[in-house]
């Protein structure tokens, strides 16, 4: 470990999600990890941060007119990140690969004159100590390695890149305020409507396991949702299934890009537009009644069969296996 300072963006601060714990785990391999936030962390969040080795959380003190919904604007988050880097002399900034964080990191990189890697699926250092981000691009057809040659490196990191691990020893976490001023012109927030997600399931973007249903479901997502609940997985769909009105969110190049540890496609043919959004998954299982379905070309495990038979059997075995543990 070097004497680098690694800043992790907490986004949002109220809860420390698994993707943030992954960033802390990656950060500890690169240097001393600190956190930056725009909101007051909860007691639970501070305990989790302490268990993951974060001694200091830098909390932005924003001008009064930016303390409401405006604090979510990417310009405000970017100004906070840039100010936090200057204050802590940080060498590396790690943020989750959400759309909002990606925009903020790009703006902060511009303000700092620093190298930016978006959507990294791996972060390491080369023999010269420079930060290296790897990622899969062009619909999963190329793996790229980017070496950051500036003093400061900013990266957004995809969920499920590493398994989060607590630090060897927990530490006490202190919150330190720091003033942030925003010089860039900002849009006015007139209304903010938070998306209410199904709290019982992980979010599609960050889930370690995703099961997606396609036109092969014939509109019955029951077996897909039941298997998802047996696995603790998020549920997605193909675009055609969403356009049929059978589900609300689809995976793919024009939908949500996912890279879970396990992706199960049920009744999905594997069209290029769909593959572009899931091909970077670590293990791909496909269930399809057509042995010639294109998704079988890219999957690790192929199950030829009717999903209405296969998925309930899988859910039953998984539940029995979990109950026996
Ligand atoms: C500009 C553009 C952007 C697009 N973006 C996206 C995108 O982001 N994401 C996306 O998903 N699509 C996208 N599409 C659509 C994409 O091209 C495909 O049309 C779509 O992915 C097909 O959905 P599907 O696999 O569910 O349906 P189909 O291609 O009809 O496949 C259904 C599959 O189900 C199988 N099946 C049928 N019955 C059963 C059963 N009982 N059990 C098991 N298997 C069964 C069939 O063998 C078949 O392989 C886009 C298209 C365009 C033009």
Automatic annotation (TrEMBL):
Binds 1 FAD per dimer. GO terms for biological process: fatty acid beta-oxidation using acyl-CoA dehydrogenase. Its cofactor is FAD. Residues 5-198 form the Electron transfer flavoprotein alpha/beta-subunit N-terminal domain. Pfam families: ETF, ETF_alpha. GO terms for molecular function: electron transfer activity; flavin adenine dinucleotide binding. FAD binds at residues 215, 238-239, 267-274, 288. SMART domains: ETF. Keywords: FAD, Flavoprotein. Belongs to the ETF alpha-subunit/FixB family. The electron transfer flavoprotein serves as a specific electron acceptor for other dehydrogenases. It transfers the electrons to the main respiratory chain via ETF-ubiquinone oxidoreductase (ETF dehydrogenase). Heterodimer of an alpha and a beta subunit. This is Electron transfer flavoprotein subunit alpha. It comes from Isoptericola dokdonensis DS-3. The gene is etfA.
